[in-house]
Amino acid sequence: MLKTLGAQIKEFKKDSVLTPVFMIGEVIMETIIPLLMASIIDNGVTAGNMKHIYLIGILMVGAAVLSLTFGIMGGQFGARASAGFARNLRKAMYENIQTFSFSNIDKFSTSGLVTRLTTDVTNLQNAYQMILRMCMRAPATLICAMVMSFVISPRLASVYLVAVVALACVLGLIVSQATKHFSQAFPKYDALNESVQENVSAIRVVKAYVREDYEVEKFKTASNNIYKIFCKAEGIVIWNNPVMNFTVYACILAISWMGAHMIVQDSLTTGQLMNMLTYCMNILMSLMMLSMIFVMVTMSMASARRICEVLQEEADLGNPDEPVREVQDGSIVFDHVSFSYKKEAEDPVLKDIDLKIRSGETIGIIGGTGSAKSSLVNLVSRLYDVTEGRLLVGGVDVRNYDMETLRNQVAVVLQNNVLFSGTILENLRWGDREATEEECRRACEMACADEFIKKMPDGYNTYIEQGGTNVSGGQKQRLCIARALLKKPKVLILDDSTSAVDTATDAKIRKAFAQVIPGTTKLIIAQRISSVEHADRIIVMNDGQIDGFGTHEELLKNNAIYREVYDAQMSGSGDFDE
Known about the structure:
Blueprint: H1 2-6, H2 13-45, H3 50-99, H4 102-105, H5 110-152, H6 154-201, H7 203-208, H8 212-237, H9 240-264, H10 270-312, E1 332-339, E2 350-357, E3 362-367, H11 373-378, E4 388-393, E5 396-397, H12 403-408, E6 410-413, E7 422-423, H13 424-428, H14 437-446, H15 450-453, E8 463-464, H16 473-485, E9 491-495, H17 503-516, E10 521-525, E11 537-542, E12 545-550, H18 552-558, H19 560-570
Parallel strand pairs: 3-10, 3-11, 6-9, 9-10
Antiparallel strand pairs: 1-2, 1-4, 4-5, 7-8, 11-12
Helix pairs in contact: 2-3, 2-5, 2-10, 3-5, 5-6, 5-10, 6-8, 6-9, 6-10, 9-10, 14-16, 18-19
């Protein structure tokens, strides 16, 4: 874990080294100042030597200025190192997430990834800055002050030693108990973020069903769980202060009483007593800082493990050593393909799929909910790998392609389409970043989107809100189809992507496909037989298997499921699920 996290320090190694160096410099100056003060009292004030007072006073001012300078520089370099470390962590996590296959993404919830990129990284950033500054300053202060105390008076310094051991034991107990609660808190953030994310993304549904009170209560419960855990943890940590104060005052009383007797016996000077009292505060405060560091580091350990899970997750899918970088055509061959989402699954989702699709064919795919229609087409663009058998596109096993090359030649339009915040043109150019406005317009004409874009005030420069909330479901689908067409793919997959458009528009889109991109292989998943009856051939899926494969006329004669659904839909009722 340390190796994984340490690799993200990168260009901030210099800042990470300079920060503790300056902090040690600050500690040394703070250690010298009490010695100078003792010298002023013993050799200046007591002896009435003003020259000595002035000389040592100047040295004290110089030491104070150096201490302040070192502190400022340590803070500056520490802030830069910790902020840079956090930036690199977020960047590395985000870049790794982009390489994930669907099976990798399935391991992490969306809210969990958001928490890792925000709250968990912030915890590590704060912990790293504290480690660079306080974790170096506190031990250095403790060691310097303890050494100087034994130099001045071993007898009085033994009081510190006893206090340090006792305080360390108590603080260790406090930290260990608090750690258990802090470790439980961070997974609760996932539930909180999930509640917020679901509510905001589905706010229209929430309001339509008048479920605001339910969502508020759900959020309140998630928030209250975090509150309770932190209350328990902080209730334990808060004992730091009273224990610390008791130890400090006990040490001051013991040292003052013993020191006074030693002054009377001329075995200790007044300046040395003042010096010892100052070191007393330094030692005990450094222990307090160490205890807080332990708490912070302990809190961040849970975050560190969660971040490392993302950083160390390796994509299930990758390029071969010498990938093929050209897709010859849109032919597709399923060679006895079986597929499971999880390796340990007993029953595969797809079972022994064996079919051949010629380049340029239009293939309809129909079947009931859960018949694995989407799973079948997801394999074509290698969003998942087959469990058994082979899948060939353009005569080459998809596992032998460079994934970017393959996916650039396989365009997918999903039922639940996603538009990003930006203009219509910016969204369309996801298909081809170099596309001209004229090319975008032609793609929109094919997708029957041009007609509604022209009616918008700013036309193709109309701004699309996040998630496409300012366009209808049918308009969103047509924009996504146009975006896919701009890729000029060899294979076009429409996963029930015309479900929100009317029948006439659906027919126009299919006609445009046949006329404008005849060489592109088109896989059309649909629930309506009218959407696929004019396809070259139709696949009927049932329980992860191919129940029928042929033309509309052939299936009407030979396939009972297809004929039954066709009759039901022609009479105005019924679908595959029924």
